[in-house]
């Protein structure tokens, strides 16, 4: 009787094939790994973190699995505590010595300093969870830059929406907030421009008032030369002229102040009722003067040439000596 084991048909062996790699396919990875491995040193907790980052950068597949926000959190710690300075003096395989700078450290990890700084800025603005969610949504640097400029309350609302992972809701909210912020910014700029123009107008009015006052002071400071044809006034006449000049000056200055107040209200107040009352106040003063003229039967002529002109006699009304004061 034949042994069943002897009657089995031999199982053909599978042929093992070797996969050939192109020459130099791993040279770049091997060189990067050798370079980073040469920099790993130290036993302290800070050095362990530094070496951990360098080690994680050695393998491309490890970097791909390395959470972006976790990496950024560790990089933020390294930058804040300046752990990269511990690399100063380390020798590179090519013989050059490291200076221990932040830019140098970023390049060793395979990133540019500007990109890492921008990533850390986004991390600080949005937080780990929201940034991770926005990265999965495919939100780019340009959009994140717009989101960073939003007011704090709007940015907080956007961050909370990002954490939900709802891309459609996030994009709709982001578009609304950006448009609203742009409109608010434009409104503020318009108000600032209006305020600047108003301030310039006020400065011009005050400058003119100051010029008028200075001119009046100069006229008052001029020495008075009596007119021999008019003769000498009595003390009673001097007192009457002085009182008249003071009353006229006080009324004119009050009228100018009222005009400035009314003009300011009409230019800057949006309340129509307030603007109407301001004009009514000015009208009241003008009408009162007209009533005085009519009531006392006075003849007053007003011409463009007389506008803003102070009568010459008023300049000397307070200075001309009377016949009673001469000794």
From TrEMBL:
Superkingdom per UniProt: Bacteria
Keywords (A to Z) from UniProt: Coiled coil
Record keyword Coiled coil present: yes
Coiled coil: 171-205
Protein's name in the database: Uncharacterized protein
Species, as recorded: Vitreoscilla filiformis
Native organism taxonomy: Bacteria, Pseudomonadati, Pseudomonadota, Betaproteobacteria, Neisseriales
